[in-house]
From TrEMBL:
InterPro entries: DUF7708
Protein name: DUF7708 domain-containing protein
Domain called DUF7708: residue spans: 75-217
Organism: Epicoccum nigrum (Soil fungus)
Amino acid sequence: MAPNMPHQSANDLWADAAGQLSADDKQHINFNQPDKLQILVELRADAELSKQISIDKRWKFVRKSGETVVVRDVFEKIVRWVDTFKQIGDIAVQYDATHASLPWAGIRLILQIAVNDTQNLNLVVEGLAEIAELICRYAVTETLYNQAASKADEGLKRAMVKLYASILGYLSKANQYLKQGTAKRMIKSVVLTEKQLDLGLDAIRTAEKEIRPWMNLVDKDDTIRHQNTFSADRIRNHDALVYLLQGMDVPLRRMDDRLKDLNDNLQSK
């Protein structure tokens, strides 16, 4: 049976991205979330529990590059990105956080499948943390940049939809891969392989790189355009989002300080 697709609107880039998926990819995404915001609460709780399990069991793995990854640290990143996304919703009231429920639900589902199989978990957990960061980064980008309908703005939207479609496609394939079972994965003719998951992450990274030039073009168009039209409150929120976006490039400990500063500022208003 065909999945119930989310309603597409002019401002829901995730719904637009879902519409670009193949029929097969759509079959492995749950479009029927009863409470779209509750998924963040559930994902955070799952990630915290998994983090504690990884601490107790001292889970580590070695990347192909030879670097050792402490799994606890990766779960910590996922928790922090969930907290960051909630903060974005507090600042940017015009951003509809339910739009990003699809990828968050996908992350949670894959964690639930993989957490009891360390080999599978090692395969996907860093990719999930990377995707969690991108969900946050481009939620802010949507709010900061999608304010008009110039050619640059439309180009940026198309590039972001491509990124979102790549993310949803990866989550769908990871879900499908993990559900194949060990026996099927050993068959060379199996539909999905670890290599295809790696290629899925490569596609996400390539799509993100294609966004940057469009952001630069929008910046040139918008240098003065909004200065005279923003209210004082909106300017403050705009500055807070810029601060949050810049903070995404700093280590998690410093990022925690930024989130606390923003929360204190919001409460004082």
